[in-house]
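Issue 218. Parser rejects a valid record. Input:
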Amino acid sequence: MSSTLIGAARQRPCTLVVCRGCCCGDPRKHPGFDHAWQLERLRAAAAESGFQVRTTDCLGPCDQPNVIVVQPSATGRRAGGRATWIGFAMDDDCTEEIVEWAAAGGPGVAEPPVALELQFIEPPREERVRSRRRR
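Output the parser choked on:
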């Protein structure tokens, strides 16, 4: 059985989901990194290259901030790409590597930079996320 994407889903670009919750993006907790610059840089690159950037309150792995999830484009998903979680994304080099990968097509379309692979993390298990939301 094959699936057919219709409408906007057929053209969905690579999307970066940037955590800006309690631990990620907080200059009080991580004063040595310019969180606003990072988001501005990602958004500027998205405007130039055609990928998207979204922010969210909390993605879950609060012990590994800043967390960014690189979601595949529709083309990347059809090629087998899956969402890739990146932790400790708090330096200029990491930000630039994420930009390069997303601009090249992201998961399923382009190989990630080798150094960026060292920052791949496991997504939180659903049970942990649910229990955290109940508190």
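Fixed in the parser; the record now loads. The first strand starts at residue 15 and ends at 19.
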